[in-house]
Design goal:
The structure is a single chain. The protein has 191 residues and is mainly alpha-helical. It has one domain: Arp2/3 complex 21 kDa subunit ARPC3 (Orthogonal Bundle). 77% of the residues lie in helices and 2% in strands. It has a two-stranded antiparallel sheet with strand order 1-2. α1 crosses α2, α2 crosses α4 and α2 crosses α7. The longest helix has 36 residues.
């Protein structure tokens, strides 16, 4: 190989390393951000599902990082929790037990939720409306999986909806609106 070609390969590798490190840092940081959001938890006495800020974190990660990095960040988050790191909401059992408990359907849906919200936000010009619709689509995935898991545990669709959806609608509207607003603002400031 000629000397200029060898130098071009070395320069190319040297330029890719910082970009790769930046991507890894974004994904790891996003998983930690969701873990911090999980610490903001309000246990509700009438349902086994607590009110947390995790969903907000998942949506924001998906909207800001996009489908691939958002999915990766939330898959990492689940792996951290499964290995016993204290990343899930503190009201739960932690570890794999939390993934199999009442909130398991929601937790296991997180990578898909981030991917769906990210995918839809990547299509076309970014606006508050587009980001809000992407967030709503993510929430539909989240609550479909969460309520389906609760139905398996309770053996009742009515109870699953009562415990896992009805009491959270207003809070989720606020979370989607906030995530879309923040993502829109950050997107505008990047340009």
């Amino acid at each position: 190989m000629s000397k200029p070609a060898t130098q071009a390969i070395q320069t190319s590798s040297a330029e890719r390393a910082p970009a790769l490190l930046r991507q890894v840092a974004l994904v790891v940081g996003a998983s930690f951000f969701v873990a911090l959001c999980a610490r903001i938890t309000i246990p509700l006495p009438f349902t086994p599902v607590p009110l947390t800020m995790q969903n907000f974190g998942v949506l924001l990660v998906g909207l800001l990082l996009g489908s691939r990095r958002g999915f990766t960040a939330l898959a990492l988050y689940l792996a951290e929790g499964a290995f016993g790191l204290p990343v899930f909401n503190p009201a739960g059992l932690g570890g794999v037990a939390q993934l199999l408990g009442p909130t398991g359907g929601y937790l296991l849906a997180y990578p898909l939720v981030a991917a769906v919200a990210g995918f839809l936000s990547e299509r076309g010009p970014r606006s508050f409306a587009r980001l809000a619709l992407a967030g709503i689509a993510g929430e539909v995935v989240l609550f479909t999986c969460g309520v389906a898991w609760l139905q398996v545990l309770t053996h009742s669709f009515r109870l699953a909806v009562q415990y896992g959806l009805a009491v959270f609608i207003f809070a989720e509207v606020v979370k989607v609106t906030a995530a879309a607003g923040i993502a829109n603002r950050i997107s505008r400031n990047r340009v």
